[in-house]
Amino acid sequence: MFKKVFVANRGEIALRVIRSCKELGLSTVIGFSEADRDTLPVELADEKICVGPAPASESYLNIPSIIGAIEITKAQAVHPGYGFLSENIQFVEICEASGITFIGPTSKNIQLMGDKALAKKTAKECKVPVVPGYEGSVLKEALAHARRIGFPVIIKASAGGGGRGMRKVNSADEFVKLWNTCQEEAKAAFGEGALYVEKFLERPRHIEIQLIGDKRGNIIVFPERDCSIQRRHQKLIEESPSPCVDRKLRKKLYRYAYRLAKRIGYQSTGTIEFLVDSYNSPYFIEMNTRIQVEHPITEIVSGIDLVKHQILVARGDKLPFSQKDINIRGHAIECRINAESPSKNFIPSPGRITKLVLPGGPGIRIDTHIYEGYTIPPYYDSLIVKLVAYGMNRAETIGRMQRALEEIKIEGIETTVPLYQRIFEHPIFLSGRYSTKWLENFLASEQEQIKREA
Ligand code: ADP
Question: Which terminus of the chain has a lower count of CB atoms within 10 Å, N or C?
């Protein structure tokens, strides 16, 4: 039974984990980089230890340094948050071998789902539909399959993630060239060049199912999240429930997610991702074996504290709720506010926050590590605030988000707030009939308009 948890992450998720630990009476140690010394997680954790210099490769991704820090501080468990070491098999194996409880799935779980091509094969084996494609790495065969399923197709890195390592291919002529480019990019970004191919769906929705499993084989699935508002395959806005999912589809998604998680004996929080086509047919694309950025909207809609139960199942506890306890209570939407400049092609906008006013009032939850006077370092991802609005239904939730986006003031840096204000006024977003393509099209049309007016 662990009593001290090492938090191997930074920013808002480190804070989120510390909060749950405190509520459970567990003490916390934060491992921070030199760039993160003056941050809220460092202030709020019970103990702190520096794990290395600013670059993540030398600190948050530095396995010997993190393991050393865990041993020095005598923490018995480690929470990896998302990103960094959260899905690193080697790290999890070291924890398992040294008696450190990894607050996440087993290394075996990650192995089975971390390789996206292998995950698709497993899904097929348990009769979960996948996007048609070819889960092999042989160029000649890949091209033959692409011809058979028809262009456009998408080439993906088996080890890919975070919206990177993917290329749409429109014709056989460009296939070989893009295959080689993808392979090189995958090797550079993920350390291995294995690729696979699937049919490119033109206007899908990204719908995902959160789940949690305990060590006794119980798996509970949660109402879907719609994460179709994306830029460059990266999520910006998420909502739950999805405006396009009816009861029949939801039941199907629950069944598929449950079946897949059960098959691999999944233990912890995780998410099964699907694309849903215009005929409302879902196709499995991948599983994320971690707590995700967008988990708060599920916590609100289900009333279940996911991080708390992730910690408890890691301790060996049985899940204290059953599937029939999971209902949809109202609606929730999250905006990921990034320190980026939307008018300059979303380049990062690090720097000092000179003024900060955070919204409040009914139906608003804020997960953030920033404060007035805080300097956003240039080394890490640009997420600074998760602004979540919730209400009885979608209309009330949107009204609250519009009001919160008006209230929020972050000065000294640029943020994506003005973009969200425009999205929350747009008839397509308001109608709920958007696909993963919509935001890119909207941004392109805005650019066109600016050019015309210039
Ligand atoms: P990652 O692991 O990098 O997040 P995913 O496989 O989950 O990659 O895909 C991320 C996003 O890329 C999806 O939400 C979707 O917008 C787009 N995408 C992925 N596969 C396809 C596909 N076959 N057709 C169209 N879009 C796709």
Answer: C
CB 70 within 8 A of CB 97: no
With a cut of 90, say whether residue 431 has pLDDT above it. Answer: yes
**Active-site residue set:** 290
pLDDT digits (tens, 9 = 90+) for 129-160: 999 999 988 999 999 999 999 999 999 999 98
* Alpha-carbon Rg for the chain in angstroms: 21
Query: DSSP per residue over 15-42, as a string?
Result: HHHHHHHHHTT-EEEEEEEGGGTTSHHH
Q: What are the structural domains, with CATH classification, of the chain?
A: 4-103 (3.40.50.20), 132-199 (3.30.1490.20), 205-453 (3.30.470.20)
Provide the 3-class DSSP secondary structure of residue 166: strand
125 C-alpha to ligand 1 centroid (Å):
21
Residue to mutate, 436, 438, 440, ligand 1, most ligand atoms under 8 Å from C-beta:
436
Structure tokens at 222: 């949660």
Q: Are strands 409-411 and 234-240 parallel, antiparallel or unpaired?
A: unpaired
Q: Closest Cα partner for 439 from 452, 454, 453, 420?
A: 420
- Residue 113 in 3-state DSSP? helix
